[in-house]
Fold this sequence. Notes:
Blueprint: E1 21-24, H1 34-47, H2 54-60, H3 65-76, H4 82-97, H5 107-116, E2 121-124, H6 129-139, E3 146-148, H7 161-170, E4 177-181, H8 184-192, E5 197-199, H9 223-231
Parallel strand pairs: 1-2, 1-4, 2-3, 4-5
Amino acid sequence: MTSSIPALGTRTAEGTTTLQAVLLDMDGTLVETEGFWWDAEVEVFAELGHILHDHHREVVVGGPMSRSAGYLIEVTGADITVPELSVLLNDRFEEMMGRGVPLMPGAARLLAELAAHRVPTALVSASHRRVIDRVLDSVGAGHFDLTLAGDELERTKPHPDPYLMAAAKLGADPARCAVIEDTPTGVASAEAAGCPVVAVPSVVPIEPAPRRPVVSSLEEVDLPFLHGLITGMH
């Protein structure tokens, strides 16, 4: 799915700056782990004596651990603190990852294409560093010039901070960074930072909007598609 791509930082005939970087979410976008998180939450709360209902999943998907844990404690009345619950959830999630971390359809091909064209690429996740590093063991840390974890910033998604930080560290203009996200929380973060977004919904539907095409799979996303996102072709 590769094609002739303008060099980064050059200008097209219309005078529009081309793509400067690609910033990708992790859970549910690159790797099929959103189900792991929910299963971990259901199991841990069952051990605490509480049942989680499916409608809670739409609230916690894509959010930072502190927000998700706090919400689930509030709705269940579980006798546990957010830090204590965060440790239990991360531990259980890591156990599940030991069974293997499946890549989302199209993810391996897209990462290889970005690397082949030397496009600066960052992994921007609300997950904690310990979890990201475990996933990178499967995905390959070499695919990314930068990785940012949710516990490395004072404010993570849906605030703009993660994507603003990633763009700054790559020396890129956020408006020239294509973001790929699977949740409304992640989309809100990227758009608040001024980045155009490709939405690949995993659990919760996402509506298309200007500079926000919605696709069903990463199989539909390649480098020409991402350049088109920057130049306003979508």
